[in-house]
Structure formats: C-alpha cells, structure tokens
Amino acid sequence: MTEQASVSLFPWQQDDWSRLGSNHLQKHHAMLLTGLDGIGKREFACLLAQSIICSRTANESLDQPCGECQDCRLFEAGTHPDVHVIASEREALEGRVALLGEYANRYQDAAARDKKANPSQVIPVDQIRQLIDRFYQASHISGRRLALILPADRMNVNASNALLKVLEEPPENAYFLLVTANPSALPATIRSRCILERLSEPAIEESLSWIQQQGTVFPENLLLERSGPLDLLAQLESGTLEQKNQNIRGVLGVLDGRTDAVELASQMSKQDSSEILNWFQQFCADLIRWYCVGQVPGWQGIEYVPSSMNIMRVYAVYDKISTYRRLAREQLNGQLALEEILISLRRAV
Questions:
Q1: Tell me: the pLDDT tens digits for 114-160?
Q2: CA separation (Å) from 52 to 47, 84, 143, 282?
C-alpha cells in the first residue's frame, strides 16, 4: 500500500472551514464548491471529503478529520472503497492533489490515457454511469459514500443528465462534492440541486507573502492578474506568467490600435485553446468589473488603458467566449475565434 501525503488547509481557508464546518455537507447531500482559480478548491474539497468519511468527525464533533481511524488511513492511502473521484483525464494526470488522481484512476483506463499526447479534458457519461452503479450498492466500510467530481463543468451533456438523475434521488448516506471555477457552465438543473459555496480568495498582498514563503521571488516587472496564489506560483515556476504578461500587453496594444489583431491572434493560437479562452474571459470580466463597479484590474496602468468603452459590447464578447469554450471541447478553429474576440474588443473601445 502506497502512503499518500495528507492534505491541509491554506492560511486563507481557515474562515471558510469555520463557516462550512466538517459536518456542513451532511445537512444536504450535494455541494458545489466554486471560487477563483488557484485558491485551493481541490485541497479544500479533499479535506472536506475526508472529514465526511472519517468515523470520528461526526461522532466526536472534531474540527477536522482525525487522521487516525481506519477510514482516515484508507482515505489518505488512496484506497478507501467508499470514496469516488470523477475527473477528466487531464485532471487525473496533472491535478495538484495527487491523492485525487489516485482515486480518479479507478474510473479511467490509465494505460491507454498515459499514451495520449493530449489527454481528454471532458468527463464522459461512462464515468458517471459507473459511479451510479457503484453508489447504489451498499457502502463497504464507513456507512457513507462520497463522490467528488472535478472540474464539474467538464462533464459533457450526457454525463450531466446522468448525474442529475442521481442528484434528484440520491441513495441514503450518499454525498456529492462538485468543484469548478466556472459554475455557470453547469446546467441550471445541476446547480439547483446543490448548495453553492464560494470559497474566499486572499488579498494580493497575502498571495505574494505566501509565494515568498515558498522560497520563490516574485519579479517586480510582472503584471498581476486576478489569480489565486497557487496558480501564480505554478505560473512563475513554469514561465507561463510571462506568457500571460505578453498576452495582456498584446491585447492592450490591439485596443490602442498599435497591434494588429490578426497577427496577435496567430501568435495566441499556439497556446492551449481552452486555457487562452479562459484567460480571455477573465480579461473581459476584469474590464466589466472595472467599468461597472470601479474594481481596478491588476494590470491597469501598464502601457495603455482605454479611457472609454462600450461595456455592452464587452458583455457580448464575454458571452461569445462562453460559446467558444464549449466548442473547444469538440472542435474549434482557435485562430478564427481569437481574431473575432480581438476585433470585437477593439470595436468596443
């Protein structure tokens, strides 16, 4: 049996844990955890899942799972038979929490997946059907069964419909944790059957302080976006934060008329289509928050900032990107999509 590392809360999650509590989910059978990318939703969900499975948490009103009972030991080893993790292939391979990937392997052909150049980012209906079959069987040890689905917005239409049926009529002592940074991408029918909980995000000062505590120096010349500290750290270590800086400067150049939209779209199309579309939607959201409520973007004041903008056109671009993100799961001409986004933003100025 391979020993897995236990998961703990990040400093900025203490208030959320106190608010939700280890027994919170047991008041309702399904919870939808959401929040900004990179704030530790997976780690939080993993600890919450363990607290539900822990045999001592409910009986002794512990603040966190004990880590000592049979349920906790099996959970942390990745072998608890009553814990089920449904994830995309990309998440199982590259997700930050290795323990969740270990559980997700039960529902995937790991040997075939590992040979793929581009592991799927979609959760297929077959995984949900397997989950339902196993959920309607008796629990093995704890008396409770728990399913953790992430990223939940990656379920295809058939998978969402299949999950809806079990959410409507869940087995006794069965609990569901859905995790996503994009809850609006889930069907309204799924959202309506879950308690929606948005996790807090730390202030940028707290994020930078935490990054420095990890032994990483944050360069002063880099722009800051609205990203959680875990994402910022990963982007610093991988070099993608510099790429995002180039994206910001490029788009601001298009808005100013200094950069050709078609040429920039050609450069951006070399990036992962799902990630660049997600980035563009966050960029539009930053513009909307800035003009509607005065929340200044982290990249504000660099090189060029538009003094006026037709915000309704920005809303239209934001909605269009949502369509492109859905199409990107199947087939999408990324360069043409990026060209339309950039040209539409330029026209909004």
A1: 999 889 999 999 999 999 999 888 778 878 899 999 999 999 999 99
A2: 9, 13, 11, 33
Residue with the two structure tokens 């939808």: 32
> Cβ(306)–Cβ(349) under 8 Å?
yes
SS3 227: coil
Is residue 208 in some structural domain? no
Lay out the sheet containing 145-150: strands in order across.
83-87, 145-150, 174-179, 30-34, 195-198
- Spatial contact of 337 and 306, defined as CB atoms under 8 Å apart: no
Nearest CA to 142 out of 173, 103, 167 is that of 173
| pLDDT digit string, tens, across residues 79-122 | 999 999 999 999 999 999 999 999 999 999 999 999 998 899 99
- Domain of 18, in residue numbers: 11-198
Which amino acid is located at 271 in the chain? Q
* Domain identity same for 258 and 131: no
- Same domain for 183 and 238: no
Q: What end-to-end distance do the CA atoms of the chain give, in Å?
A: 59
Structural domain contains residue 329: yes
Q: Phi, psi (5° rounding) for residue 120?
A: -65, 145
Find, among 111, 149, 144, 114, the residue nearest to 130 by Cα. 149
Q: How many domains does the chain fold into?
A: 2
* 249 and 281 share one domain: yes
215 φ/ψ sector (left φ>0, alpha ψ -120 to 50, else beta): left
Q: What is the dihedral of CA 8, 9, 10, 14, to 10 degrees?
A: -160
Whether 176 and 276 map to the same domain: the answer is no
Residue with tokens 């929606």: 196
Does the CA dihedral 349-267-225-221 come out positive or negative?
negative
Are 83 and 131 within 8 A, CB to CB? no
Question: In b/e form, how buried is each residue of 301-310, taking b as 16+ CB within 10 angstroms?
Answer: eeeebeeebe
Q: What is the spatial distance between Cα 179 and Cα 107, in angstroms, rounded to a whole number?
A: 17
